[in-house]
C-alpha cells in the first residue's frame, strides 16, 4: 500500500501541480520569519504565530489536496499519516518524510524530515537555536488540514537540524475524531 501512495504522490507532483520557484518560496518564508522576530522580539510568540499561520494554510490546503489527489476518506490515523507523508508532502514540497516511532496503540508517531526545503540557506543566530522552531508552520498546516477532515491532532517539533540536532522530527498525536456539525438552519 505504501508503494501505491508513493506512486500517486510522484504522479501528482509531475503531472498535476503547478510549481513555483523553490528559492523564491524559501526566501519569502525566511523574510516572513525575520519580520515576525522583529515584530514580537520573543521566540515563543514567533513559534505561536508560525503555528497559527500554518493552521490557516492547512485549513485551505486540504481542499486543494483532496481535489488534486482524488483521495477519499482514510480508515485510521496510521493510513492518514501514510497519505500525508507519501502524497501530501510530495505534492506540495516534493519531499517524502519518514514515518517512525509509532506508539503501541498507533495514536502517536513521528515524521522525520530528511529534507526540509524551508531550511535551505538558513542559519539561526545563537540566541534563537534553543528557542525558535523555524519550520513550525508545518505543525499548524498538519493540525489545520486534519481538523478539516474531522481529526484532532497535536503536532510539535521535537528536533531540528537548524538547532544542531541530527534530524528534524515532528511528533504527532491523534487526539480524537471530531463530530461533523451541521450549521443551524436559518428560519
Descriptive tags:
NO_sig/Golgi_transp_ligand-bd, single chain, TRAPP_component, four-stranded antiparallel β-sheet, globular, 5 helices, alpha+beta, 4 strands
Can you tell me about this structure?
Helix 2 (22-40) packs antiparallel against helix 3 (43-69). 48% of the residues lie in helices and 15% in strands. It is an alpha+beta fold and 187 residues long. The protein has helices at 2-15, 22-40, 43-69, 77-93, 137-148, and strands at 98-100, 108-113, 151-159, 168-177. It contains 5 helices and 4 strands. The N and C termini lie far apart (48 Å). Strands 1-2-4-3 form a 4-stranded antiparallel beta sheet, covered by helices on one side.
Unreliable runs: none
> What is the residue-mean pLDDT, rounded to a whole number?
89
Name the helicity range.
40-55%
Largest sheet: 4 strands, antiparallel
Which structural class fits the helix and strand makeup? alpha+beta
List the helices and strands and how they pair.
Blueprint: H1 2-15, H2 22-40, H3 43-69, H4 77-93, E1 98-100, E2 108-113, H5 137-148, E3 151-159, E4 168-177
Antiparallel strand pairs: 1-2, 2-4, 3-4
Main location: endoplasmic reticulum
GO cellular component, one term: Golgi apparatus
Family: Belongs to the TRAPP small subunits family. BET3 subfamily.
